[in-house]
């Protein structure tokens, strides 16, 4: 594919060196998608345990009423500790892919650098489990995390919710649910290139019919898997697509970042602006020349280091470190 003329030169050079294959997600059938999921899970299961002192533990915790238990993956500093800050994390994957293990390195880094506890939720995926199953799993995991604060050594006044891409959208939705259901209290939301709007009507959602990662067709595929024929209609809940929320007041302080060259750019800009207008303290970063999830796919670039440092600094402030 031809790269966008605004693509960051260092990132462009790395992409050309790496010669990554083009993955046309939107051409997949749902059966092929399930096969890809199984391959990802098998690969992650077969991978060696991360070489770290961080304690990693998987647990099954109560799911939504009447639904199966939910797996959470817990990351903790070694040794005994109390009153630690906590990050409740939701992985990405377009609502259709992903497991917590894909973020092991990032979560281990947060624990090592911040001394926090991380709880990462393995929510059910669409289309097998359409809305509201994914967000209800995420909310159930958050409720369990708050109830287990004593056991986990968590300071509930420093509980943040975060996620990337689809996980960022689910994080925003989970925070909305926590506000509207009267808890748990969330101190901060970290929304990394979040997937927020099923309507696909912004300029950037039309602009990127081709992209290094997650173009318009892929986005429509993901939203259709989650919502079926309700995509773009009036019958979509803000807990599915947080951009639909008309009232953003009373939410915790937020951090949002996004790349210049991705479909989510304008919906994320709008959400950040509306948060500020609703009285929510918000930090926003737009990374020039960057595509979706660029710092994970092309690690080690100057722009990627800046993005990762900004997220870390935001969590340090939120955790009062």
Structure description:
The structure is a single chain. By secondary structure, the chain is of the alpha/beta class. It has one domain (25-318): Alpha/Beta hydrolase fold, catalytic domain (Rossmann fold), CATH 3.40.50.1820. It is 38% helix and 17% strand. It contains eleven helices and eight strands. It has an eight-stranded mixed sheet with strand order 1-2-4-3-5-6-7-8, sandwiched between helices. Strand 1 (55-61) and strand 2 form a beta hairpin. Helix 4 (133-147) crosses helix 6. The mean pLDDT is 94.
Number of helix segments?
11
Q: In CATH, what is the homologous superfamily?
A: Alpha/Beta hydrolase fold, catalytic domain
The total strand number stands at 8
The CATH architecture assignment turns out to be 3-Layer(aba) Sandwich
- Give the domain tally: 1
What ranges have pLDDT less than 50 throughout 5 or more consecutive residues? Answer: none
Domain Alpha/beta hydrolase fold-3: 88-294
InterPro entries: AB_hydrolase_3, AB_hydrolase_fold, GDXG_lipolytic_enzyme
GO molecular function: hydrolase activity
Protein name: Acetyl esterase/lipase
What are its keywords?
321 residues; alpha/beta; Rossmann fold; 38% helix; globular
Chart the SSEs and their pairings.
Blueprint: H1 9-18, H2 30-46, E1 55-61, E2 70-76, E3 84-90, H3 104-114, E4 117-122, H4 133-147, H5 149-152, E5 154-164, H6 166-180, E6 188-192, H7 203-207, H8 216-227, E7 254-259, H9 265-277, E8 282-287, H10 294-297, H11 302-318
Parallel strand pairs: 3-4, 3-5, 5-6, 6-7, 7-8
Antiparallel strand pairs: 1-2, 2-4
Helix pairs in contact: 4-6
């Amino acid at each position: 594919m031809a790269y966008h003329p605004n693509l960051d030169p260092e990132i462009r050079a790395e992409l050309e060196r790496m010669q990554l294959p083009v993955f046309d997600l939107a051409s997949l059938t749902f059966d092929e998608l399930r096969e890809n999921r199984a391959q990802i899970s098998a690969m992650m299961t077969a991978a060696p345990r991360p070489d770290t002192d961080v304690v990693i533990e998987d647990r099954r915790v109560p799911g939504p009423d009447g639904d199966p238990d939910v797996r959470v993956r817990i990351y903790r500093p070694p040794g005994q500790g109390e009153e630690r800050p906590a990050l409740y994390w939701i992985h990405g994957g377009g609502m259709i892919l992903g497991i917590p293990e894909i973020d092991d390195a990032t979560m281990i880094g947060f624990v090592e650098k911040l001394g926090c506890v991380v709880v990462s939720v393995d929510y059910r995926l669409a289309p097998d489990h359409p809305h509201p199953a994914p967000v209800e799993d995420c909310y159930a995991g958050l409720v369990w995390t708050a109830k287990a604060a004593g056991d986990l050594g968590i300071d509930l006044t420093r509980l943040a919710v975060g996620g990337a891409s689809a996980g960022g959208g689910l994080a925003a939705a989970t925070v909305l649910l926590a506000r509207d259901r009267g808890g748990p209290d969330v101190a901060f939301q970290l929304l990394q290139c979040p997937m927020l709007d099923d309507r696909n009507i912004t300029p950037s959602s039309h602009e990127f019919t081709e992209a290094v990662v997650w173009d318009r067709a892929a986005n429509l595929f993901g939203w259709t898997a989650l919502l079926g024929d309700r995509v773009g209609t009036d019958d979509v809940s803000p807990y599915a697509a947080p951009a639909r929320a008309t009232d953003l007041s009373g939410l915790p302080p937020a951090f949002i970042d996004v790349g210049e060259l991705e479909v989510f750019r304008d919906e994320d800009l709008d959400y950040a602006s509306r948060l500020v207008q609703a009285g929510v303290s918000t930090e926003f970063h737009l990374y020039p020349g960057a595509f979706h999830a660029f710092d994970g796919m092309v690690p080690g670039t100057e722009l990627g280091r800046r993005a990762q440092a900004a997220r870390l600094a935001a969590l340090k402030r939120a955790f009062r470190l």
